[in-house]
Recover the amino acids of this structure.
């Protein structure tokens, strides 16, 4: 049995010298993840649909003392994903970490769910995740290493009466895609894992969480009795991005206050 290497143990969460790509880097979660990756030593590329929305993320990364690059990218369009990867490689020459934080939610009763809204959720959450993994994965295969962290949800675990026919289905697909890529790419030393939070405070969920009756529906399913905040989720992402998780792949980590426990 090997003894614990003290230096290795102390550097288990060190990301110095790494290059990370965070899609959806202008969103509340994506921005927090990008900033945290920079704080742990990574240079970070953030993507979003418009350059202006990425300015705050870039500032936060640079405040953490790391290099930042903003690239406009609609993750549902393969040509734009390819362009994003090419620009990242031109700038840094490698991609060590990918976090697929780009995502949307549309809520309607299943019987009245507009097809265009359903397709939009699938395009961003499923196709967008796949395309980013596909083209960053090609780079990681050539490198012989990489960490991919997809963003899932507890809605992939169980249904909910709040109109999640599209969102829950999309995140269920993300979970299986994560496991599929993990099994295919393990031989290339690429780890693929998912972080699946419960509902958390963002501008997108404010409407729900500030409506007391809707809020109680969600909180009644969370044993810890509160919604998550972005800081709850960031730690799990850092773990999957860091050397600490080198022998962990194909896993879905629920950050949910006990929601999926019973």
């Amino acid at each position: 049995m090997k003894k614990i290497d003290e230096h290795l143990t102390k550097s288990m969460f060190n990301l110095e010298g790494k290059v990370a790509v965070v899609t959806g880097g202008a969103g509340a979660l994506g921005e927090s993840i990008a900033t945290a990756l920079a704080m742990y030593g990574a240079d970070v590329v953030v993507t979003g649909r418009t350059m202006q929305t990425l300015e705050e993320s870039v500032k936060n990364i640079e405040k953490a003392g790391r290099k930042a690059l903003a690239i406009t990218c609609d993750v549902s369009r393969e040509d734009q994903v390819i362009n994003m990867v090419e620009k990242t490689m031109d700038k840094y020459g490698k991609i060590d970490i990918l976090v697929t934080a780009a995502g949307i939610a549309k809520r309607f009763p299943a019987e009245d769910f507009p097809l265009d809204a359903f397709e939009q959720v699938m395009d961003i959450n499923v196709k967008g995740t796949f395309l980013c993994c596909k083209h960053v994965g090609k780079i990681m295969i050539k490198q012989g290493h990489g960490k991919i962290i997809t963003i899932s949800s507890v809605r992939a675990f169980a249904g909910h009466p709040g109109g999640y026919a599209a969102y829950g289905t999309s995140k269920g697909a993300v979970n299986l895609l994560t496991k599929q890529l993990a099994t295919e790419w393990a031989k290339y030393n690429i780890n693929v894992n998912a972080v699946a939070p419960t509902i958390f405070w963002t501008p997108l969920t404010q409407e729900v969480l500030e409506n007391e009756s809707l809020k109680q529906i969600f909180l009644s399913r969370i044993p810890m009795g509160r919604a998550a905040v972005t800081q709850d989720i960031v730690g799990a992402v850092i773990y999957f991005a860091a050397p600490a998780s080198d022998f962990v792949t194909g896993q879905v980590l629920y950050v949910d206050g006990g929601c999926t426990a019973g």
